[in-house]
Amino acid sequence: GISEDSRVEAPAFTDAIRMYRQSKEQYGTWDMLCGNETQVLSNLVMEELLPELRSTIGPRLKGKAPERQRTWIQVSDAVYRMVYELAKAQYDAAVARCEQERPQLESTIRTDMDQIITSKEHLASKIRAFVLPKAEVCVRNHVQPYISSILEALMTPTSQGFAEAREVFFKEVTDMNMNVVNEGGLEKLAEYMEKLSQLAFHPVKMQSCYEKMDQLKLEGLQQRFDVSSTSVFKQRAQIHMRQQMDDAVYTFETLLHQELGKLQGKDELCKSIQRILERVLKKFDYDSSTVRKKFFREALLQITIPFLLKKLAPTCKGELAKFQELIFEDFASFILVENTYEEVVLQSVMKDIMQAVKEAAVQRKHNLYRDSMVMHNSDPNLHLLGEGPPIDWSEEYSGQPEEPAAERRRRAKQVVSVIQDDEGALPYGAEALLQPGSPEARQPEQARPGVPPSPADAVQEIREALAQESLGDGARLEERLMNGTEGSGASEEGVLLPGGVTQQGPARDGDGVCCATAASPAPGAEIP
């Protein structure tokens, strides 16, 4: 998928995708913002191309529904591959152009930074004076009354999921501690720690955490704010759960590894594990609160901002062109009227969102800490832990060196956590051939990497390429469309098919979750 490591390219790419869709009156989340940059661009082109392709080819498909569906999959897959190749070439060329222009732009920024900032602030003040009164009225009438309802709908399943992750971690460590005491020795500890180090990426053991997000339902709010699907929020919360679990395991591993040299006998080992577990659980509670509050703020913005932009478009969008003259030509590459306009709209609702999350933390209904609470006097050593290489427990303590630890951890992280998405098992657009009328277009998602999409004439270029392809292959394609019996070829590995990736269900058997009988300390306990 799109890398989240970049703080510049990723948001620039997804902002470009979002603005392109908004220019076509498509607001809100978009389920097809998945895969790498080329795949996202291909999905964008296919979204525009499929209705035309469907109206041209759909009536010519023969046979029963399964045969028509199979033929449509073959056709849409072939078109997608062509689109993918063209999008990849154009995207790579755009990236190369950006890299060539980058040194000059960086030089200009360093030289004229003060003037650029002054010019941006002047533009923002003018746009704010024009837009803010309208935006505040819109927020007051159409958004503010529903913020608490949206927040409550998000908080309940998310907080339950994080609480379940905490409980799973506690049970795994407690069970390990009991087994080490009963079975004895550092060799057994090494064996159990190897398993624990992969806990966050174990789909069966993490499944109970992820399932909590299935309860997320925005119901009437989903229609009011034009949210096409809640899957983007479910998946983001599940990714946060996995990251928090991995952080907790890493902290526990590191602290235990530091203690082992000082321990004498199994009793001391048992007490040390219990003491470290309590420290890590306190840190988990604090970090979980911070992560969830950030997630709630981002989700509220992701729901309300597209709605506000759509509401304000009739009265504000057409007037933005007049603000372009306030930008010096030399700074036009750094200051965009559209971006500044969106910043003003964001400011209009941000205060209400921050206040709602703050009030939720004060109530402590979902074990959220207030922003003023800090961990510094509870366990300063936890803040000194740096990122280090994975600990090779088997080689250090069992005396049985196996594969390199880095390779083992890499493979463990390939065990993708089961993040459920019940929507859309058929390839992109296949449902429409089985039902009268095509579904409404879906809508945009959350920000990530790269470069703006292909220009508006890219769709026309695809059409021309399809026409040229059909000249050389017309007879064979006609035969395929008429009989609809040709078997579908296997897609090449690494290319996202038109329908995205087929969802894999979780394994219900196999590794069982260890169930310790002890109850975990209550989350939110006072931090010493």
Structure description:
This protein has 528 residues and is an all-alpha fold. It has one domain. Helix content is 63%, strand content 0%. It is built from 13 helices and no strands. Helix 2 runs antiparallel to helix 3 (65-183) and helix 3 packs across helix 9. It is globular and about 75 Å long. It starts with 8 loop residues before the first helix and ends in a 45-residue tail after the last helix. Residues 374-378, 408-456, 469-521 and 524-528 have low confidence and may be disordered.
Compact description:
It comes from Pheucticus melanocephalus (Black-headed grosbeak). This protein is mainly alpha-helical and 528 residues long.
Spell out the blueprint of helices and strands.
Layout: H1 9-22, H2 37-57, H3 65-183, H4 185-196, H5 203-211, H6 220-224, H7 231-259, H8 265-316, H9 337-363, H10 393-398, H11 405-412, H12 430-434, H13 458-483
Helix pairs in contact: 2-3, 2-13, 3-4, 3-5, 3-7, 3-8, 3-9, 3-13, 7-8, 8-9
